[in-house]
Amino acid sequence: MRDSGGRGQGPGRGAGGAGSPGGPGAARRTPGGPGRAGRGGSARSEGAGRPASPDDPPRKRPPDPFDLPFDDDLRGRRPQDPGDDARDSARRDSAGGSRGRQRRDDGDRARPRDDDEGTRSRRDPGDGPRRRPRDDSGGSRGRAASQGRDDDRPRGRTPQSRDDDRRRGRAPQGREENDRARGRASQERDEGARGRTPQERPRRRGDGPGPDQARGSGADQPRGSRSDQSGGSRPEQSRGSRPGRTRGSASGQPRTSGLDQARGREHGVLRRGADVPPPRGPRRPPTPPRPPRPPLILRLGSPRRRINIGLIGMTFVLSIFAGRLIQMQGLDSKVYEAAAVGQRQHVEEIPAKRGAITDVNGNALARTSEAREVSIDPSKVPADVRANVATILARQLGKTVEEMTAKLSRTESRYQLLARDVDPVVATRLLQARVPALSTKKTYRRDYPAGDLAGSLIGFVGDEGNGLGGMEQAKNRILAGRDGKQRVETGRDGLRIPMTSSERTAPVNGQDVRLTIDRDIQWAAQKSVADQVRESGASSGAVIVMDVRTAQIVAMANAPELDLGNWRRAPASSYVNKAAADVFEPGSTNKVITAAAALEAKEVTPDTVFQVPDNIKCADRVLRDAHPHKPEAMTFRQAMAQSSNVATIMAARKVGSERLYTMLRAFGFGTTPAGGVPNAEAGLLPNYKNWSGSQSCTVAYGQGVSVTALQTASVYQTIANGGVRVDPQIVAGTTDATGRFVPAPAGRQTRVVSETTAKEITTMLETAVSAEGTGALAAIPGYRVAGKTGTADRYDAELGRYDGYTASFVGFAPADAPRLVVLSVLQNPKNGHFGGQLAAPVFKDVMTFAIKSRKIPPTGSDVPPVRTRAGQ
């Protein structure tokens, strides 16, 4: 078989003859001869390797169902420009020239091959061992030539993989470039060895068609064509046929060029040991030249990368949401639950009804009544009706139209308070008028039915329901009670959500406070002092009426008095209860304390006679009596009746500063009065050790010491009570929750002087109201009255010096059975300044009204005869 057919008995070593269908030549569809397949070629080769002729046409093989078109466009290769074809041809040339010995054999086509030994002797030693032919299942297609070419092909990447690289945009590099250069050089040497001129050499792809090229070869064929490109010396080769790569044959067929061998390896031959490719189909017609390469298009990024980035971002966002959800539902669930409850639940205060303030007989001086708080939402009042609404509100609420218009114009606000303490009837009338966005709230208002009666003593209540002065402030805890609470659930609009739970704590109403004030006597005292202040031109005045036995304050009047119905517009000075807070030097009314100290010390008696000049030197000062007179002998009773300063200083010197200071303290000077009187002051009483030389004298007649009207009234209450001092009382008691009256505890009692001393001082004071005394204007017909006038220099704190006078009178009646003490004081009068002239008439008016109101009958006793002058 080797001798008869050789390697296909044709010039091609691996082609199975000139057109053997058994070898790889079958892929080229060349007619074959009867020779055997070279190295695995099939025995199906027909003919002697001679070229096809019209007389002996090659038999047509039936079409193979596995034959597929191998056009580059159908394979999905990207279009290339003509430059790419040239580069592909050069790559195939380099592949064909990679075996030097084979290229030399291709150049010696004319020499016949005698035997296999000669063929093997001409093999390139560098070709390496040949792979033994392997018969196919049917032997219809010889693969020996294909595997022979596979042995000659350089190892590495297959042409198919390089085509894939080109489709992916990768260019051949490195070894392929070197092989391409060496292939072109070897081909030129082979052509020179065959004696061809450059014109006779086959033209490379991209050089254009030559005169000697056969039809279907050269540059006219596409890259995938398998036609012979060795030149135009073989006119008998038909279109689409391709000679095998044989060195020679008995018939003298020329051998296939190295270029054809390279193309064979590139387009169908696998590496050594690789599977044999499937059989080729019929020859394809040459494809037209490829169009120019389109411009480079920016390729989009990998969708997988975008998807991954998107998934990572979504995972990050979802993880944040998940963490927040875990925090809200797990870690901080209690916190958010409490916050939701706080937004939904609201606590409404149920105001407690404030207790009333009444006089000693239960007459209301301050009371609480039901009222309404009127408010509006300006944002819901249409602009076209705003003027009309303002007019209605102003007329009903007693406000000005300008004030209502200003509140309605604040449309950025959702709440504007229009008025407090509105009468329910007025509020109902406004609601019936259908004023838009108007709302009312149930509240309580404080009413003062007596107007300015005891205004500064009663005090007033602020907008928040707390006392701001007087008894309202002093007894606020008792009067205010305790507000209730109601916990409800409301919606966004503030309306209560039906069928929801609620908690209600009932309010505790305040307790009523009953004062010791008698409304009628208070009215009389207030009227009398106001009239005198107006007539005398005094800056202020005060009257205190006190019960002798209990020290309860029956009346405490000031002029001018605070009008509780309009306290917001009253001057701040009227808020002060001057009867308990104003401090002044008492003057001669303080001489009873000096007399009590002298009588208690047994230094003098009421009948002790003093040689009294009209002046006396005390330290660096000369002190004088109120009226100039010649030196005369006076009993101590007479000196008290005529209010002699010089005689009083003489008695005080016998007592001494220390014992006088002690007596002043015992009567309550320098200490705050007990009993709950609001705003009561302690006065000023310097320690006797700090008295100056003249102060030890002036203190004896009421200069150099400061007291309040309440303290002075307490001194005379002590004398009238037989020397027993009782802490002044202003509160008679309170009412409990059941309405039962609970009396206040009695004031503390303190013995200051003996009863004998008190009676002796009483007789001395009774003389002062007689015709021989300075207080004759205070006498009341039918009643024995004891009292003392007082006139003192007034210290003006604003000016920082003495300016004006303080006129006062204090006494009690009946003198032989005292029941009431009345004090009247005028500050800085302009029309006169003596106490007996200005304050005594006030005392008389108030005492007369009080004993009548209290139904205190006269004792009917006569004044006992006493020694008023020396020598009697």
Summarize the model shown.
The protein is 32% helix and 15% strand. The chain has 872 residues and is an alpha+beta fold. A hairpin with a 4-residue loop joins strand 19 and strand 20.
What is this structure's SSE topology?
Layout: H1 2-5, H2 25-28, H3 82-96, H4 100-107, H5 116-121, H6 144-152, H7 159-167, H8 175-193, H9 258-267, H10 303-331, H11 333-344, E1 345-350, E2 357-358, E3 364-376, H12 386-397, H13 401-408, E4 416-422, H14 424-432, E5 438-447, H15 455-458, H16 470-474, H17 476-480, E6 484-489, E7 503-505, E8 513-515, H18 519-536, E9 540-547, E10 553-559, H19 578-581, H20 591-600, E11 609-612, E12 615-618, E13 621-624, E14 632-635, H21 636-641, H22 645-655, H23 657-666, H24 695-698, H25 709-720, E15 724-726, E16 731-735, E17 741-743, E18 749-751, H26 755-768, E19 786-796, E20 801-813, E21 820-827, H27 835-853
Parallel strand pairs: 2-8
Antiparallel strand pairs: 1-6, 2-3, 3-4, 3-5, 6-7, 8-16, 9-10, 9-21, 11-14, 12-13, 15-18, 16-17, 19-20, 20-21
Helix pairs in contact: 3-8, 3-9, 4-8, 10-11, 12-13, 18-27, 20-22, 20-23, 20-26
